[in-house]
Specification:
82% helix
Length: 49
């Protein structure tokens, strides 16, 4: 939801300085989500070994 909010703000045509800040936040959020997904996948595989 956070990522969607930041990306929605980007589409509203903000000035460049604000756009770069939102892009930075969106990227950091996406990286966090990716880390959680990877951890969850690895945790789920523990029982299958």
């Amino acid at each position: 939801m956070i990522l969607q909010g930041y990306l929605s703000n980007l589409n509203e045509g903000l000035p460049d300085s604000q756009v770069s800040e939102y892009v930075r936040k969106a990227t950091a959020t996406a990286e966090c989500i990716n880390s959680i997904i990877q951890f969850t996948r690895q945790y789920g595989e523990i029982g299958t070994l």
